[in-house]
Amino acid sequence: MNCAECEILLHALIDGELDAGHARDVEAHVADCSACAQKLKEFRAMRDALASADLKEAAPASLRSRIDAALPPAAAPARAEGRRKIFQPSRRSFFGGFAAGSALSAAIAASLVLTVFRPGQEQTIADEVVSAHIRSLQPGHLMDVETSDQHTVKPWFDGKVDVAPPVIDLTAEGFTLLGGRLDYIDGEPVASVVYRRRKHIINLFVAQRLGSEHSFVSARTVQGYNVRHWSYGGLDFWAVSDLDPEELGEFVDKISAALRPSRSP
Q1: Which residue segment(s) compose the domain that 148 sits in?
Q2: Is residue 149 part of a domain?
Q3: Which of these, 45, 69, 107, 128, has the minimum number of CB atoms within 10 Å of its CB?
Q4: 3-7, 41-45, 178-182: least confidently modelled range
Q5: What is the mean pLDDT of residues 55-59?
Q6: Is the dihedral of CA 176, 259, 239, 185 positive or negative?
Q7: Quick count: other Cβ atoms within 10 Å of Cβ 213?
Q8: Res 50: pLDDT
Q9: How many other C-beta atoms can be found within 10 angstroms of the C-beta atom of residue 171?
Q10: Does residue 190 contact residue 157 with C-beta atoms inside 8 Å?
Q11: Which of 224, 218, 225 is nearest to 240 (CA)?
């Protein structure tokens, strides 16, 4: 691993996003490279500084005084015989209501932020498979078993994952089988079957219970990479590539068709 490759992975190492193999590679390089060790130290210091910094801004006391001065004088409650007391808000009640309303608004806003911005499991897994795809593109990380023989790739996964993935050779249809790799998504070992379309790499991640079940193909784009997800036969499939959406869809269609049992006429 060189310094350029290491620097890309330093933040992932700090955040605990690397699998054990990649983490060992980065740590081994840092142990022998003073420049990268210094960068790692600086990144960690920056993270700790941001985590401990008091970034809340309190409104100055003068702001309350200015609002108080701008309010009309409090009027005495009007009373009349046989009539109920008419309420006139005082400055105290105004600010009490203002504070309660602000707290309620803040709570509502916080719930909206959590609803809108907290990623669901599906998006979280999509982010992780794209990160794994990007890591695989680093030199020496794409494949653990390099062969176009599907009968060699499939048994290689035996004992490494819960269920050996289906390995389909689509070389004759323009998607060249390159081999396979053991990867980790959401802390679980998963199989990645690697294909190439011209100069574009496709990682097909296969595992059990990797995201919610989809009988249909869901499509999304993450960090500029196209992602397709579907489920079949108790397995989850995630295809990731910078290939254009139409060609990646064609790849998914061919994989899906090969997974379905053929029907006799």
Answers
A1: 121-259
A2: yes
A3: 69
A4: 3-7
A5: 69
A6: negative
A7: 13
A8: 75
A9: 13
A10: no
A11: 225
What does the pLDDT look like over 148-178, one tens digit per residue?
999 999 999 999 998 889 999 999 999 999 9
- The answer to pTM > 0.85 is no
% of the chain with per-residue pLDDT over 70: 76
Same domain for 254 and 142: yes
First-to-last alpha carbon distance for the chain, in angstroms, is 55
What one-letter code names the amino acid at 54? Answer: D
pLDDT of 24 strictly over 70 = yes
Q: How many domains does the chain have?
A: 2
Task: Read off the tokens for 199.
Answer: 């100069």
In a domain, 180, yes or no: yes
3-state secondary structure the chain: CCHHHHHHHHHHHHCCCCCHHHHHHHHHHHHHCHHHHHHHHHHHHHHHHHHHCCCCCCCCHHHHHHHHHHCCCCCCCCCCCCCCCCCCCCHHHHHHHHHHHHHHHHHHHHHHHHHHHCCCHHHHHHHHHHHHHHHHCCCCCCCCEECCCHHHHHHHCECCECCCCCCCCEHHHCEEEEEEEEEEECCEEEEEEEEEECCEEEEEEEECCCCCCCCCCEEEEECCEEEEEEEECCEEEEEEECCCHHHHHHHHHHHHHHHCCCCCC
Q: Between 73 and 233, whose confidence is greater? A: 233
Which CATH number do you get for residue 233? 3.30.200.100
Name the one residue in this structure whose structure tokens are 């109920």.
84
Residue 257 identity (one-letter amino acid): A
